[in-house]
Design goal:
Elements (H helix, E strand, L loop, with lengths): L1 H13 L7 E8 H17 L3 E8 L16 H8 L8 E4 L16 H8 L3 E4 L3 H9 L22 H15 L6 E2 L5 E2 L3
Parallel strand pairs: 1-2, 1-3, 3-4
Antiparallel strand pairs: 5-6
Length: 191
Amino acid sequence: LSLLRQELSDALEEWEDDGVCRRISLATGEAPADFLRGEIHKVKQRFPGLDCTVYAIHNDYFGENITVAGLVTATDLIRQLKGKDLGEELLIPGVMLRHEQDKFLDDWTIADVQHALGVPVRTVDNDGMQFLLALLGVEEDPAVGREKCGILSIKARPYATVRLIEDRFIMRRRGIREPKKDESGLLFSTV
């Protein structure tokens, strides 16, 4: 969690509020819920138009002593969130899904949960930049792999600006101070 805190802090340095107005929810296990509330509070200070409610999901499926997000099931999500106003999107940690990223541990799919709750569900990896982008509603372009230069396609943000922000974030995380450009203008380093 401390790495997520640092990555989120770094990501927040790169972004400015451009009038974000978004109401969403985040569901997680009971153990990380307070930590995530604290981190979201920091994001809200920078982006006052963001309204994010964190739901700590009690684990009835595996038992009350299980409090981690990685063992929350779709059954528990639906049972505890059905009928609540979740906003325009529900974020969940990617660790709630099996390693194939297509089903929960109780064999329900994300589509099943979306249908049951009546709201889009988005998984978020344990990465500060990705967490911030999900909170802000920024869409990744699935046709462009993040591993291939960290290029993002952002709605309502100039492509070049976002690309530079993402490149600078990756370089800072890797300790690169002075990037170089190749013939196509892409930033890189030989570190």
